[in-house]
Amino acid sequence: MTAIRITLLCGVLLLSGGCFLSKKPAVIVPVAGPATPAAQPSPPASTTPPASVPAKPAATQTAPAQAAPVPAAPAADTSKPSPFGPATNVTPAPKPVTPAPVKPVPAPALGAILTADQRKQLDASYQSDLKQANLVLSKLSGRTLTAEQTDSVSRARAWIRQAAQYHDRDLATAAELVRRARVLTQDLAGALN
Fold first, then answer.
1. ∠ CA 110-152-186 to the nearest 5 degrees?
2. d(CA 103, CA 106)
3. Which residue ranges make up each domain of the chain?
4. How many whole angstroms separate alpha carbon 178 and alpha carbon 126?
5. Eight-state DSSP code of residue 21
6. Based on CB atoms within 10 Å of each CB, which residue in 46, 66, 104, 152 is the most buried?
7. Residue 154: predicted pLDDT
8. Which of 162, 146, 143, 155 shows the shortest CA–CA distance to 185?
9. Strands, DSSP E only, in 62-137?
10. pLDDT (tens digit, 9 = 90+) per residue, 39-84?
11. Alpha-carbon distance 186 to 177, whole Å?
């Protein structure tokens, strides 16, 4: 009895074409042929047509053959260049509009708001300290200085340059930088005497 079952199982597997053993199921694709007109029912077996129905000519009794629908052609992809050359009906993409350059707006000054009297006092202090610092620096320019003294002179000159940059924007900061340069140069002059 088991031999019969094994034989039947082998026969089924051979007839099925190995569908059970393959990973992909078998797919049957119908082949589309030309469309055929639908068959019209044949007239009754009587030999004479009824008197009320006029006989039609044989050419009009059969339905015309209908053509199979033709699939629409896919739209042309204009984003990729054609290997056959440029297309003649493709319009070039418009150039992007670049806005005119905008002039930067100066940042508002963050310095202290000064009255006219305070501004006069700070400017007078700035001018006085600047004059004293430059006088000491001019006296030190011909002397031999140590590395530390040379560093102090360059620091005082840097503060004077920064003060000149801040003078119009922030007078209080400019006056403080010049005051530091004056104090530093006076300390240097006192150490050299």
1. 90
2. 9
3. 116-192
4. 6
5. T
6. 152
7. 92
8. 155
9. none
10. 555 555 555 555 555 555 544 455 455 555 555 555 555 556 656 6
11. 14
Q: In whole angstroms, what is the distance from residue 154 CA to residue 125 CA? A: 22
Structure tokens at 103: 């002039």
Angle at the Cα of 115 from the Cα atoms of 113 and 121, rounded to 5 degrees:
105
Q: What is the DSSP letter of 22?
A: S
The two tokens of residue 112 are 């202290």
Query: Which pair of tokens denotes residue 56?
Result: 């039609």
Contact 170, 122 (CB under 8 A): no
Residue count of the chain: 193
Tell me how far apart the alpha carbons of residues 20 and 26 are, in angstroms, rounded to a whole number. 10
Residue 71 in tokens: 């699939």
Which of 136, 141, 133, 149 has the alpha carbon at shortest distance from 182? 133
Rounded to two decimals, what is the model's pTM? 0.43
Alpha helix ranges (H) inside the chain: 2-16, 58-61, 116-140, 147-166, 171-192
pLDDT tens sequence across 128-160: 999 999 999 998 888 888 889 899 999 999 999
